[in-house]
Amino acid sequence: MVPADLSAIHPQAEGSMRLVEGVMSRNYAPKDGTDPDKITFVQVDADKCEACGACEEFCATGAIQSINDDGIHQVVDPAACMNCGQCLVNCPYGAIYEGVSFVDELFAKLKDPDTVVVSMPAPSVRYGLGECFGASTGTYVGGKMHAALRKLGFDYIWDTEYAADLTIMEEGTELIQRVKEQGQKDARPLPQFTSCCPGWIKFTETFYPDLMPNLSSCKSPIGMLGPLAKTYGAEETDTKPKKIYTVSIMPCIAKKYEGIRPELNDSGFSDIDATINTRELAYMIKAAGIDFNSLPDQDPDPVLGESTGAATIFGNSGGVMEAALRLAYEVLSGEKLNNPDIKVVRTHEGINTADVNVPNFGVVKVAVASGLKNAAKLCDEVRAGKSPYHFIEIMTCPGGCVNGGGQPLDPEIQASLFRSTVAQINKRFRARKIKA
Amino acid sequence: MIMKRRSFLKACGVMAGYAVLTVNVASEAFAAAMSFVALRQKSVYAADANPKIYTYRKSQDNPMIVKIYNHKDGFLHDGPCGHKSHELLHTHYIDRSAKLAALKAKGYKLSI
Ligand code: SF4
Ligand code: SF4
User: Fold this and answer.
1) β-strand A156-157 against A192-193: which pairing, if any?
2) Which residue, A338, A352, A358, A347, is CA-closest to A319?
3) Do A164 and B59 touch (CB under 8 A)?
4) Is A263 labeled as catalytic in the residue annotation?
């Protein structure tokens, strides 16, 4: 496939703002070594804020709050913000912007013939991207997404879904080890928490650091794919690791924070060089003049590209749990799991708990929470020593990554909220008039 | 400037109903967002169950996973949670509560 011509695309000034699929975004790519805790990934434009307070309702930590008598909201300090972007996607006035964007840096790398640019798209991107090109909500566009990445000039189309399968192998094995070592000296504690979601990880580190031993030591899928690309991937493709520029493509804003964590350097380099989200990928495809809808369906490149259904369900709340159980069941029972659907753990909102019967082993007790307010309830239980579970999955965004802060916006939120606000005001106004 | 920043709600003169309205707006937004999310979730499970999209449904069946863990010559030949895995695929966490404590000491009220 002939790559698109990017020669007409020029970088904007650092710090300048632009509209990316309905969200204002600041052109700022933090350099290696920048402290991620000092960066504002999400902030309110005070001139656009209408003081409705919706953002505050959606924020679990209270990081976003009214700062003056007019009710204008701000993220008061990045230390209290988990960078989830739930405030951003739910602001009915489009007043919240993104503070970090690697789009211009990435365009420059794609144009540079000396850089080997590697794509690493997360599961949920392929269920959101199509919406930016007119497809109905949730349409699967995985094949076109791979083709679009090739067309943009990415050298290797590797896929975070492959690393999701790897995560299951590592995290599932860790869980089985933890269960077996209970009662021994130095046993790692149960329940084991999932570690895929960067908002949740920062939340634990900030609000529940005493529970860090319960977090799986496994990196998230993207945290695994970055270093593998620069070691195994480099080996398999005969590429010099230092020429490789890895691009994490996520439905998420908090992944931008994860991508610049200084400890993620196990390849001998920065494991993840850039992080963009679904909206930014759509922006880049449009900027490059690619006709997305007429692209053929294409596969990712082998070795670090192939994936399974267990990997794609990582995007839904309960998905990591279900994928892990598809492994744990077979390992613990020694039997084949004939029907891989474990529907009891599928979670739309709130907290979901289940007892899963595993033959030749016993009951595995699991819990799935979506949204950090729900996560806090489970954390308090663990802290009090009253948690009966073996394994707990937490997603920061209600419903999971498919509803991440970096996904295309729900067109209805802004439109219908505005309409309903006006309707409610009118109703009150009428009611008062009638009484008077 | 102040007029410009005044909220739409205030400009409409609904001072009294403001607090109630705020809650309604948020819960309505939540309901709207969740029905939207349901559509995306449904599509994810449909792809998982569609053999034309995913040949395999369990991570352990992925041929490229089998390859990387191959005992003889796989890149991670010592298996999941083996030595090489710990080097490349596992991590540690950092206590960030001091920053929070500092923020609270400055007088900020948070929800947790
Ligand atoms: S949701 Fe948007 S408009 Fe409403 S208070 Fe928050 S930032 Fe301001
Ligand atoms: S990004 Fe998330 S944690 Fe930060 S202010 Fe918004 S809702 Fe709160």
Assistant:
1) unpaired
2) A347
3) yes
4) yes
Q: Would you say the CB of residue A42 lies under 6 angstroms from ligand 2?
A: yes
CA angle A312, A315, A320 (to 5 degrees): 80
**C-alpha angle B33/A141/A223, rounded to 5°?**
80
| Other beta carbons within 10 Å of A161 | 31
- B5 → closest Cβ in A62, A72, A204: A72
Whether B49 sits inside 8 A of A416 (CB atoms) is: no
Does residue A373 have a pLDDT over 60? Answer: yes
Angle at A326 between CA A321 and CA A327, to 5 degrees: 100
Contact B43 A424 (CB under 8 A): no
The answer to whether residue A330 is catalytic is: no
Least confident of A161-165, A378-382, A411-415: A411-415
Q: In what order do the strands lie in the sheet with A42-44?
A: A17-20, A23-26, A96-98, A42-44
Which of A64-78, A304-318, A385-399, A411-425 shows the lowest per-residue confidence on average (mean pLDDT)? A411-425
Tell the residue number behind the tokens 């080996």, with chain if given: A235
Given the CA of residue A83, which atom of ligand 2 is nearest to it? 1
Token pair of A307, please?
């994936």
A265 CA distance to ligand 1 middle (Å): 37
For ligand 2, is residue A281 a contact (CB within 6 Å)? no
Angle between helices A198-207 and A372-383 (to 10 degrees): 40
Between CA A91 and CA A48 the distance in angstroms is: 11
Average confidence score pLDDT of chain A? 94
Phi then psi for residue A431, to 5 deg, are -60, -40
Percent of chain B with pLDDT over 90: 65
Question: Is residue A401 flagged as an active site residue?
Answer: yes
Q: What is the pLDDT of residue B110?
A: 92
How much is the pLDDT for B18?
47
Residue pair A244/A268 in contact by the 8 Å Cβ criterion: no
Q: Is A357 helix (H, G, I), strand (E, B) or coil?
A: strand
pLDDT of B8 strictly over 80: no
A62: which DSSP letter? -
Q: Which helix (H) or strand (E) holds A11?
A: none
Return d(Cα A150, Cα A153) in angstroms, integer.
Answer: 5
Q: How confident is the model at residue A52 (pLDDT cuts 50, 70, 90)?
A: confident
Please give the Cα distance from A118 to A237 (Å, whole number): 12
Q: What is the complex's ipTM, to 2 decimals?
A: 0.93
Average pLDDT over residues A233-257: 98
Closest to A394 in 3D by CA, of A185, A245, A195 = A195
Q: Chain A residue with minimal CA distance to B58?
A: A310
CA distances to A326, A389, A396, B53, B93 from A320, rounded to whole Å, are 10, 16, 13, 19, 20
Joined tokens for residue A279:
């909206």
pTM of this prediction? 0.92
Q: How many residues are recorded in chain A?
A: 436
Q: Which of A278, A301, A313 to mutate to test the interface with B (most CBs of B within 10 A)?
A: A313
pLDDT tens digits, A188-197: 999 999 999 9
Measured in degrees and rounded to the nearest 5, phi and psi for residue A295 equal -70, 145
Task: Give the gyration radius of chain B's Cα atoms.
Answer: 26
